[in-house]
Amino acid sequence: ELDALDLSTVDGVAQGRETLQALIDSGTRVDAVVCASDSLALGALLAVGANVPVIGYDNTPVAEAVGLSSVEQPLDEVAAGALELLLGPSGGEIVGRSASSTDPRHRLVTPHLVMRERSAITGSR
Fold first, then answer.
1. pLDDT digits (tens), the chain, 125 positions
2. Domain extents for the chain?
3. How buried is 72 (Cβ within 10 angstroms: 0-12 exposed, 13-18 middle, 19+ buried)?
4. Integer distance in angstroms from the first to the last C-alpha of the chain?
5. Does domain 1-73+111-125 have CATH number 3.40.50.2300?
C-alpha cells in the first residue's frame, strides 16, 4: 500500500521541478508522480530522474517528444458536449436551465492514458 501525498503549485516546468526537489530533499521516498499538467510532469521528471515513473496530463507535443506518459482528454468530445449543452441536441436553439431547476446539466467524457517509456520503472530501488 502506498501513501498518497497531495502537493500544490502553480503550473510550469520550473515549479514542478522545484516542488519535487523540495520533497526529495525532505527525505520523503517518491515511488511515482502524477501531475496535473505535462509542464509540471516535465519538471518533476527533471527532479526525480529516470528511476521514478512520472505521468502528466493533456498529452502535449512536449510529452510525446520526451517520452512522457500523459492522460489525454478527447477535446473534440468535450467541445461537442459543451455545444450540445448550450444549443441542445438539434443545435438550433439555446437551451437554458430554468430558474427553479436544481439539477445541473453535465457530460462525462472519458480520458485515456497514453503510455510512453518514461512511465516505466527502470531501476531497482
1. 667 888 899 999 999 999 999 999 999 999 999 999 999 999 999 999 888 999 999 999 999 999 999 999 999 998 988 888 888 766 665 555 555 555 567 778 899 999 998 765 554 44
2. 1-73+111-125, 75-109
3. middle
4. 16
5. yes
